[in-house]
């Protein structure tokens, strides 16, 4: 079983210097630096919950061709056995081109999670760790830097990977330090 999802868009941007004060005593506000141009990057991820290892791939867009390329990476990383991909029902996951690609790769099948239940996909929890390791506090100049940060963070997180278990662990049993006995 593999849990897969996309993260993004991650937009490379350079942050302007800290705002200062104008001559008349007003705070200068920094202009927003937001764009939806060709610089955006999507990060595809696939978590193998049995051992906690992750496969990631940075792509310039979220479409069927990139998703099929990502599925090929997943298939190459799992050479034996059947592969069930748990994912959301994004159009590129269920497009005609993807279904035709899956016919040529009978080992791979999809299990779509219900709409509005993204918490069922364990990949969402891994994205939280990834954002903290690769994206938090960083500024990227171009998509290559995002790809580089993705590869480094994935390697670091895979180095300390543990099996993922869905749910909350049972609370520890509470032991009493003293037992009081009341006598009348």
Description:
By secondary structure, the chain is an alpha/beta fold. Strand 4 (83-87), helix 2 (96-103) and strand 5 (108-112) form a beta-alpha-beta unit. Helix 3 crosses helix 4. It is flat. The protein has four helices and five strands, in the order E-E-E-H-E-H-E-H-H.
Fraction of residues in H or I helices = 25-40%
In terms of structural class, how would the helical and strand content be classed?
alpha/beta
The helix/strand order is EEEHEHEHH
Please give the number of β-strands: 5
Give the end-to-end Cα distance, rounded to a whole number of Å: 62 Å
- Runs in which pLDDT lies below 50 for 5 or more consecutive residues are none
What is the residue-mean pLDDT, rounded to a whole number? 85
What composes the largest sheet? 5 strands, mixed
Tell me the layout of helices and strands.
Blueprint lengths: L1 E9 L30 E8 L4 E7 L4 H14 L5 E5 L8 H8 L4 E5 L10 H13 L7 H17 L25
Parallel strand pairs: 1-4, 4-5
Antiparallel strand pairs: 1-2, 2-3
Helix pairs in contact: 3-4
């Amino acid at each position: 079983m593999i849990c897969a999802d996309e993260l993004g868009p991650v937009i490379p941007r350079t942050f302007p210097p800290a705002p200062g004060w104008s001559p008349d005593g007003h705070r200068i506000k920094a202009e927003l630096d937001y764009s939806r141009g060709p610089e955006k990057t999507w990060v595809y991820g696939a978590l193998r919950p049995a051992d906690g290892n992750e496969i990631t791939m940075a792509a310039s867009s979220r479409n069927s061709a990139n998703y099929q390329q990502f599925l090929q990476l997943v298939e190459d990383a799992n050479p034996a056995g059947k592969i069930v991909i748990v994912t959301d029902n994004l159009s590129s996951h269920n497009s005609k081109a993807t279904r035709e690609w899956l016919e040529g790769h009978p080992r791979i099948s999809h299990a779509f999670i219900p709409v509005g239940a993204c918490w069922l996909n364990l990949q969402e929890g891994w994205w939280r760790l990834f954002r903290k390791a690769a994206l938090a506090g960083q500024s990227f100049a171009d998509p290559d830097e995002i790809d580089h940060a993705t590869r480094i963070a994935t390697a670091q997180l895979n180095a300390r990977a543990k099996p993922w278990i869905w749910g909350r662990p049972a609370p520890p049993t509470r032991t009493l330090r003293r037992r009081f006995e009341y006598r009348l």
